[in-house]
Amino acid sequence: MQPQLEHDHSPVCPSCGGPLIQKSRTRLLGVGLLMILGSTLAWLVPILHIPAIILFLTGLYLLVWASFGRGRWCRNCKMFLPGR
Ligand SMILES: [Zn+2]
């Protein structure tokens, strides 16, 4: 009998060993893309340049989280975990 690997079932943080929260990657990607799209529209308005940059960076962060972080978040470390 082989032991079952369960890291998808109950993922733990590789740095602190705490439980990980799994967010929907599709949702993260969707929201991230919407934010980047919104930021490019906001960029057209001069007074919205600063919010546009913030929105763009937040959207980019979500995309990186979804792709490299695989949607996993550690509550203890307050950051997403890069996929192996
Ligand atoms: Zn951690």
Number of strands: 3
Give every kind of bound small molecule, once each: zinc ion
The helix tally amounts to 2
Q: Describe the main β-sheet briefly.
A: 3 strands, antiparallel
- The helix/strand series, from N terminus to C terminus, equals EHHEE
What structural class do the secondary elements suggest? mainly alpha
Query: How would you describe the oligomerization state of the chains in this entry?
Result: single chain
Give the spatial strand order of the biggest sheet: 1-2-3
Helix content: 40-55%
| C-alpha-based Rg, rounded | 16 Å
Write down the overall mean pLDDT: 88
Distance linking N and C termini: 27 Å
Instruction: Give unreliable regions as ranges.
Output: none
Overall 3D geometry?
A: elongated
Instruction: Provide the β-strand percentage band.
Output: 5-15%
Identify the notable features of this structure and list them briefly.
84 residues; mainly alpha; 3 strands; binds zinc ion
Note down, in words, how this protein is organized.
The structure is a single chain. A three-stranded antiparallel beta sheet has the order 1-2-3, with no helix packed on it. 45% of the residues lie in helices and 10% in strands. The model has no long low-confidence stretch (mean pLDDT 88). The radius of gyration is 16 Å and the shape is elongated. The chain has helices at 25-43, 49-67, and strands at 20-22, 72-74, 79-80. By secondary structure, the protein is mainly alpha-helical. Zinc ion (ZN) binds next to loops. Zinc ion binds at residues 13, 15-16, 18, 74, 76-77.
